[in-house]
Amino acid sequence: MSTVITEQARPQERTDAILKPISWRWPVLYGVLTLAALLLFTLLPGLEGETIYQLSRGSDLFKIPNFAVPAALTNWLLVAVMVALTILAFWLTRNRRDVPRWVPVVFGIAFVLTFLTYVGAGRSTVIPVTTLLSGALALSVPLVFGALCGVVCERSGIVNIAIEGQLLGGAFLAAVVGSLTSSAYLGMIAAPIAGALVGVLLVFFAVRYWVDQIIVGVVLNVLVVGVTSFLFSTVLTEDKATWNANQRLPELPIPLLSEIPVIGPVLFRQTLLVYIMYAAVILLQIFVFRSRWGLRMRAVGEHPKAADTVGIKVNRTRVINTIFGGAIAGLGGAFFTVGSGLAFGKEMSAGQGYIALAAMILGKWNPTGAVAAALLFGFSKNLGNVLSTIGSTVPSEFLLMLPYAVTIFAVAGLVGRVRAPAAENIPYIK
Amino acid sequence: MTDPVNENPQNAAQPGDVVAQGEQVPAPEGAPGSTVAGGTGRETRTGQFFRELLSGTWLVSVLAVVIALVIGGVLIALADQRVQETATYLFARPADFFAAVWDSVYGAYRAMFRGAVYDFQAETFSRAIRPLTETLVFSVPLILAGLGLAVGFRAGLFNIGAQGQIVLGGIFGAFIGFTFDLPVVLHVTLAAIGAALGGAIWAGIAGFLKARTGANEVIVTIMLNNIAVYLIAYLLTTQAFRLPNSPFPKSPDVPSDSAAYPLLLGPSFRLHAGFLLAIAATVFVWWLLERSTVGFEIRAAGSNPNASRTAGISVNRVVVLTMVISGALCGLAGSAQVLGTERALTAGVAASYGFDAITVALLGRSRPVGTFLAGLLFGALRAGGVLMQSTTETPIDIILVVQSIIVLLIAAPPLVRAIFRLPAPGARPRGVRTPVVKEAAA
């Protein structure tokens, strides 16, 4: 976490007399969102009756009965919290102090809760909190793996647009190997190979032939879609039982931890793939910023000439890291097939690789930041799905648009200056 | 080898030229250049001619297509059931195996040719040439959107948002088409302008954000693509757009007598005036990029933004303007769908034209005529693929493989030359070799 701060100098560490101009961006955003919550979800007619929240499922050990809250009162309280946080943010910014990290988190939760309360007000259908969260986590699995892949590749100076193709390739190989061996685990192990192969092609053209990396990435995506769809329409459909039978990774509940109300089922009643994801996030966050490998990777991505001068093999580092990154994305692709118990389908990654790319940029090329952004995308997508099934008045299309609109706002300067690794998309030529 | 950039300013790397970077690569050891072109002493005129012929870029393009078709053929053969069966007794009766391979590959490509160029099995002449017109029909949106992206590439803007811009163009064009009741010429003109406007607005958002805040246009256009998908899905549920009592989300038909592009060859062919629009757009883009002040600014800003800024060009203005022009052309590609081919708005209006257009523009090296020809080629692949899918066991997805391999190979000419052992451009025969100029890149 501390690494995020290293990018911007902390105000109190500055010794010179020139002060950084105050940025009112965040407080103003809080103000706008509070106003939106007040006007749209609280004052608007339709907020009558009670909203029923469901916090546990039938299979849980500790059952929490569904509880109903008076909608209007709840939303007024939540808006009050948001107003308080907005004032706090304004006050802190005015005094040139840092806004603590819990403020956006609490604000975000309050905003989402006002919305949920508004949607569920006066209905007999419950708001399934556990389902909402666990679905969000599931949907963000490929995004997280894809974003981590992006971090590793781009930090070493290779733009990887081919995440989409790597996810799709991983999904394909996982399904085929899983089906041939009747073992979901072998499928999961095979998935990274497909991602790595796409990575090999990417570096072959980018490092050896200096082709523009964005172009190679886009074209590789088309290539993977073509190859997998072609094989799907021929071999896989001719003999579905042999080549494309669905396999599912079993859920492995962690004893004790999985019995914690709400959090337990969401975080600790998952498949091995998700536990690997937790490990990958933590390990990458440590290794990218605290290991020799990470230092070299970042050096090669920021200033290859300097890295070369001190004896780091620039192109070899790039090749290895890009292939490794591809393997990570391939593993994420396994989620689409063996991870969710589905057979392979044409173009089943459906643009998730591009969203992963956006999550990585939104997360400022940091593993944890990228994961946070990926979870946000997963949550808003699942929110859209859940709301369309419980029948909300808000068209689900608008909710599904939300993550993309948020990304546009984010890259347009909301997250502050986002800076890519300096040597991105520049082939290193000795 | 000598550096083509330093040696010949005409060949200087242009943004958006897919080959620009790849062409500077030193030839892989042992392959082209020194060994093949290396005559001793002075070269004969014939030798010089052949060297220039063999090192030309067009030959690389042709060979790239050949390699792509060969790889596609390998895939077709691998997936064929009879090939798989005969492969089990390959050593007992190899002839069976090779016959099966030949049948599957030849059958697929023959069907593709029949579907794309000339149907030699047809009974009447009009049926025989119908495939050619189908190729043109498929190529119209590819050419228009490809031109749009090419303009962006020349300015150094990587607009991946053709998909979304086509959708917006389709929404605007179709809405004007089926909502209003206007006289013939006026109606179709307004609908086409509306479509261009729709695409221009969508791309303009990305251009504006890029100019004002520096937001990466790749990310913004990807996001706008996704937003456009949900936007059209939503609009097709609303009263203004949805055809009443239709089981599918589909808009009312665009009246074919006033708002649609007129059919060029009568009602038995689908070829519409959108093709003339595509030709006009090609000429326009050529004029814009090569002969107009705006085009000069676009190319300058793409080649070197800092130098352009010093020279007094407002790079931000160029960014917005380029994106608007680029989006307008993509919007027109959408109009080719709703006013020409489909004549109604559906959620699948853009199909995959937006993404195919990227490969079209890359293959055409962001040049207007090149893009036009690349659009024709990909239109032919698509039209041929449709017939191939329906008459043989080979699915249409194979054309995606062929397309992507073509672009990959064209982007890396040294690879193609290494495969065929061709000389590199700029390689001198050994006797008259110029000193090696090393480039200080990175």
Summary keywords:
A: 430 residues, mainly alpha, ABC transporter involved in vitamin B12 uptake, BtuC, 2 domains, three-stranded mixed β-sheet, 18 helices, 5 strands, globular, B: mainly alpha, 0% strand, disordered C terminus
- How many domain modules of chain B? 2
Oligomer: heterodimer
Order of helices and strands of chain B: HHHHHHHHHHHHHHHHHH
| Poorly predicted sequence stretches spanning 5 or more consecutive residues of chain A | 1-6
Largest sheet report of chain A: 3 strands, mixed
Helix fraction of chain B, binned, reads 55-70%
Counted by DSSP, the helix tally of chain B is 18
Largest interface: A-B, 54 and 58 residues
In the predicted model, the low-confidence regions of chain B spanning at least 5 consecutive residues are 1-13, 25-41, 430-442
Note the topology.
The complex is a heterodimer of chains A (430) and B (442).
Chain A: H1 2-5, H2 25-43, E1 50-54, E2 67-70, H3 71-94, H4 102-120, E3 127-128, H5 129-155, H6 163-181, H7 184-208, H8 213-238, H9 240-243, E4 251-253, H10 263-268, E5 269-271, H11 272-290, H12 292-302, H13 304-309, H14 314-333, H15 335-339, H16 352-362, H17 367-390, H18 396-414
Parallel strand pairs in A: 1-3
Antiparallel strand pairs in A: 1-2, 4-5
Helix pairs in contact in A: 2-3, 2-4, 3-4, 5-6, 5-11, 5-14, 5-16, 5-17, 6-7, 6-8, 6-14, 6-16, 7-8, 7-14, 11-12, 12-14, 16-17, 16-18, 17-18
Chain B: H1 4-7, H2 19-22, H3 45-55, H4 57-79, H5 81-87, H6 94-116, H7 125-154, H8 162-179, H9 184-213, H10 217-235, H11 274-291, H12 293-303, H13 305-310, H14 315-341, H15 353-363, H16 368-391, H17 398-411, H18 413-420
Helix pairs in contact in B: 4-6, 4-17, 5-6, 6-16, 7-11, 7-14, 7-15, 7-16, 8-9, 8-10, 8-14, 8-15, 9-10, 9-14, 11-12, 11-16, 12-14, 15-16, 15-17
